[in-house]
Amino acid sequence: MSDSSNQGLLNSALAAIVAVVAxxxxxxxxxxxxxxTAEIAGATTSxxxxxxxxxxxxxxxxxxxxxxxxxxxxxxQVETSNIRRRELGLEFWSRYxxxxxxxxxLLLTVHMPPYYAGDxxxxxxxxxxxxxxxxxxxxxLLSEWRRKYEAMRDExxxxxxxxxxDRCILWFGELEQELLRISESMARGEAVEASSVVGDxxxxxxRFPKLLDVHDTSGFFVRVRTLIELVIHTNRxxxxxxxxxxxxxxxxxxxxxxxxxxxxxxxxITATSDFVEYRLPxxxxxxxxxxxxxxxxxxxxPVTLEEWVIFYHDMVVNxxxxxxxxxxxxxxxxxxxxQQLEWIVKTQWNSTTYAEHFVDAIxxxxxxxxxxxxxxxxxxxxxxxxxxLRSELWADKNITEEERGRIRGAEVWSQLWRARAxxxxxxxxxxxxxxxxxxxxxxxxxxAAHSAIMPSSIILSQHRDFGLDDDELLAFFKxxxxxxNESLWQLAEAAYRLVExxxxxxxxxxxxxxxxxxxxxxxxxxxxxxVDHWTTTCSSCIRAMPRIHEAYERFKEDGFEVVSIVYxxxxxxxxxxxxxEELGLTWTTLDGESQREAVERKYGYNGYPxxxxxxxxxxxxxxxxxxxxxxxxxxxxxxxxxxEADEKETATVH
Length: 654
Prior knowledge:
Elements: H1 7-15, H2 33-56, H3 70-95, H4 101-109, H5 120-126, H6 139-158, H7 164-187, H8 196-207, H9 222-233, H10 236-239, H11 244-255, H12 260-271, H13 274-277, H14 286-292, H15 305-333, H16 337-346, H17 358-366, H18 376-394, H19 401-426, H20 429-443, H21 453-461, H22 470-477, H23 486-500, E1 509-512, E2 517-519, H24 520-523, E3 528-534, H25 539-555, E4 560-566, H26 573-583, E5 588-591, H27 596-603, E6 610-614, E7 620-622, H28 624-627, H29 633-653
Parallel strand pairs: 3-4, 4-5
Antiparallel strand pairs: 1-2, 1-5, 3-6, 6-7
């Protein structure tokens, strides 16, 4: 995940979110009444475009209050930007009733709840506590918003341009926010009648059985588990789920909704130790309860630009507020070494700095850009605090070398993404080299060697993003060949094999799902081939396929082919076919399940998707990081075909 903050690019992206409605009569003679009408309509459309750009930009960030902490300042940005979007959106809604973007706005705002806290500074400070927000809420403004929302919601729901998937996203957002509001109301000691939420969640699963299926290309299925867990975690006595019997009954009802994935989640929770975790806590240990109350990283799988905005909004607010601040208080209030260790490791897996312009940064993240306008005050504040807390933990006489290895490994993980951004934005090789040296220090220490595996595998598949050529890649992995850790020398061997593909054709023989044997090297000789390694349980793999399919349709006449190797095609054959049918895929799919372990070991795969873009002679042109989930595929193909044309022209001249 990467980011940047160029307002011009932002506005261009937002303008492209929805197509501008074509205006009839624009080719009429000047002076014609139809032409005048079109001219007025055109001006209205232009005004709507400007209003939309204003709505979706961040505007002016609030001034920092003297003595205000970076988190309090950040949380004020979050809430003020949400209020701004909500109020501007209301104006857009009423002023441009025929513009479909008003529905996009509604989908966004349902995930950004209107708190209307009376004292926003106090509210942000309360958000740093272990208890939920207890700041005063302007109930009149909140009631007014809800009345307006109901009318807008009805119009949205019944509009002909609203898709079932739009309704799905909106309804989920409503359920999610209702559950969060229940928690806040309970924290304030307010009386809550919320049992209907349980029935609403069941009706939600019944209404969208396909859209929430594990193989839905939107990836929205992951929300199913999130929603179920929200229901069975949120003040269960209010929801009527405070006994084992009532909890079991809810999970059984989930399984009877007809939603395949919801049924699977319910069965997993019921059949495993997970079920114990969802019961009312029996412990009285305040530190355990406080730790368990910290929200986790959001699990939704974004697809559209709007969903990416929602995803990053949740990610930034939840992970930074709860891991950095909530657990920081936990550190001092409940100084348990195991929990301190767990938290200090967690904080390295998520960014702990804040973008200067919060909303703009979220949009840029959603567009795959690299955000560079971080709040340096927050960064410096965090670095000082982290160093202090880490030294406290490091000095503990009881800490083991294995635990130190976990900390060092987590730090390297965080360092990995900083080094990648440093190369992509500034071609900073010094930062990359420091990363390589630190990983090398990890795998020389037997107790910490396991922490080097994941970052090393990322470097293997994305080494171009770190500015490494083939020789530099092999120089990094060569020392691992002599290590005792089997996973490390297997990665090193995989690096050498991957580099060999630059000069040695890729070879793979397997059967299609229909029993036809395909030899990739022979049957696709003379073609440019993208080999797509995937599994049906990899939502990222499936989410990238429509983008790859667009490239396939555009370039297949130029000799471009896609070979899809699925590594659970035997056990999940019907699901593979379903993915192919729903996406309308027409390329070759091979069943590689029996060869999965060998391929993973040979090329160092530890996750999917993985990509190989092959030249016409079968050698490797670009790997996983360069193909970038298909985002860069058309650019790569244009470059390859342009180079071929140049070669032909040169040959003709000579």
